[in-house]
Amino acid sequence: MGEFDLIARYFTRPARRNALGVGDDCALLQPGPGMQLAVSTDLLVEGRHFLSTVDPRRLGHKSLAVNLSDLAACGAEPLAFTLALALPAVDEAWLAGFAAGMFALADAHGCELVGGDTTRGPLAINITVFGEVPSGDALLRSGAQPGDDLWVSGTLGDARLALEALRGTVSLPEAVFAAARRRLEEPQPRVALGRALRGVASAAIDISDGLLGDLGHVLQRSAVGASVDAEAAAALLAARTQMALPPEQVNALVLAGGDDYELAFTAPSRLRGAVEAAARASATPVTRIGRIEAEPGLRVLDARGQPLAQRFPGFDHFA
Amino acid sequence: MGEFDLIARYFTRPARRNALGVGDDCALLQPGPGMQLAVSTDLLVEGRHFLSTVDPRRLGHKSLAVNLSDLAACGAEPLAFTLALALPAVDEAWLAGFAAGMFALADAHGCELVGGDTTRGPLAINITVFGEVPSGDALLRSGAQPGDDLWVSGTLGDARLALEALRGTVSLPEAVFAAARRRLEEPQPRVALGRALRGVASAAIDISDGLLGDLGHVLQRSAVGASVDAEAAAALLAARTQMALPPEQVNALVLAGGDDYELAFTAPSRLRGAVEAAARASATPVTRIGRIEAEPGLRVLDARGQPLAQRFPGFDHFA
């Protein structure tokens, strides 16, 4: 199968919102009046971001999900995306699965594939996603203020737990592994929550690289510090309800595990009711796990308010 | 050097047109009133699109140039781009050269880096570019009409000639090789010509995959056929002025060589003067090499108007 046949068979669908579908030199997009276009791009490489054994349907889902998660962190509404795909060979079963997973999530968010590029090469997937957000309303990393609450959506650490099980460093009961693996391979981007937090959250970020590392970006951009309640964070490991794990391991998973496509966000404490309303409106659980402080730095505190002795290396693709 | 240091050192510059520079979850873009956003994405993989020995500065240039060429083919004005980079290792000399070449071309076109992603992996470069074009004015592949002239910009075939020399299948005098290699490694996207052709050209395409193959997309989209004057095309091989090459080889280079980031476009013959004015205004040579016909199919004709016996396989990344 040639490149153009491949695009025609797996990646061409009728154009909708976009003026031009896949196939011209450019796609044409037009944000609505008063709207800004939010753009993000994520590159996924085999062995680094996913294992060669991953179900292609889940990989298709995740490739788009990690990008939608960036839109969520800005409070943007998904609009469209481009897909660049390097494939070692044309494997039709793989392509059909990948496309099915990707388009199922795209359809769930009304997000249209508008262009792309395919080539032969070591498996790599690059999606660039476009969303729209009312001008000036995007959630940024730079707005956190001393006194703000620190919140996080959903659960934490289960994706990394599944990764460790796949690597063989931990052994999990079957049901725990299946649930954790779903968190790793089919993350649900928090688009509805991000949108609902416009005008409520003072800053937001997607914590794909681990809570502490990504929170660090917010603190740096906002020129503030924070304290994090380790016990409140540890309670967010879903697997804990089904099995016992050493406390240090739980801390490492929830605070620095990575691959949690959840939102960490800050909001003035007088807006707690509004945060809870946004969570209800988007059917997304949120938990308060700390607060923003004027003193620079990130303090992880135990149940007695004492600094945790444990250290958490940040997650870095080149470390 | 970690991922964030790498981004800070090589890819972070002050934000200009874009509301947010590199570093938030999303970049924010706003096309002007009445403008559409034109989007294109190209993925370059080592061994497929460039050799490992290429000068990183030229590779940085080319990685952006191939994307700007897609904007040119739509008549769009460059605005911004995102860069996703998979690197086998952090090589500072390589990164400095790559960034210098990329930013030099970006600055020449007022095109701003607004976001990206870096990871470790087999060398792959994916740029997604954004341009703006007045709503409804984009040059498309679908507008060619029977009777239109077929034009091409610049010269043809020299990039492929350089590639063949690098592969060792042809031997070139040093000066010819240097000039041809520049065409291969530092193509100049025809942005000014594309813009000048708005309202003049009836269809346009960027002929990166070879003239005949890419022209085929225009014919298919426009539901027309075309005849191409092989002699007029052959005259566009710049190397011909400096050395003799077998006619069949010249034909293969100019008609199906690939990697020519020139525009092929069509225009009504009554607009020849306007095409020539657009060429002058953009300081870009253009040559009439054929015409659009109602009869489907692509006919390559010799100097006597007879079909050429020579066959030209299309260029396809999976063929």
Automatic annotation (TrEMBL), chains A, B:
InterPro entries: PurM-like_C_dom, PurM-like_C_sf, PurM-like_N, PurM-like_N_sf, ThiL-like. Residues 23-133 form the PurM-like N-terminal domain. ATP binds at G116, D117, R141, S208. Keywords: ATP-binding, Kinase, Magnesium, Metal-binding, Nucleotide-binding, Thiamine biosynthesis, Transferase. SUPFAM superfamilies: PurM C-terminal domain-like, PurM N-terminal domain-like. Mg(2+) 5 binds at D209. Mg(2+) 2 binds at D42, D70. The keyword ATP-binding applies. Mg(2+) 3 binds at D25, D70, D206. Its EC number is 2.7.4.16. GO terms for molecular function: ATP binding; magnesium ion binding; thiamine-phosphate kinase activity. GO terms for biological process: thiamine biosynthetic process; thiamine diphosphate biosynthetic process. The keyword Magnesium applies. Residues 145-300 form the PurM-like C-terminal domain. Substrate binds at H49, D259, F315. It catalyses: thiamine phosphate + ATP = thiamine diphosphate + ADP. Pathway: Cofactor biosynthesis; thiamine diphosphate biosynthesis; thiamine diphosphate from thiamine phosphate: step 1/1. CDD domains: ThiL. Mg(2+) 4 binds at D25, S40, D70. Mg(2+) 1 binds at T41, D42, D117. Catalyzes the ATP-dependent phosphorylation of thiamine-monophosphate (TMP) to form thiamine-pyrophosphate (TPP), the active form of vitamin B1. Belongs to the thiamine-monophosphate kinase family. Reaction mechanism of ThiL seems to utilize a direct, inline transfer of the gamma-phosphate of ATP to TMP rather than a phosphorylated enzyme intermediate. This is Thiamine-monophosphate kinase. It comes from Ramlibacter agri.
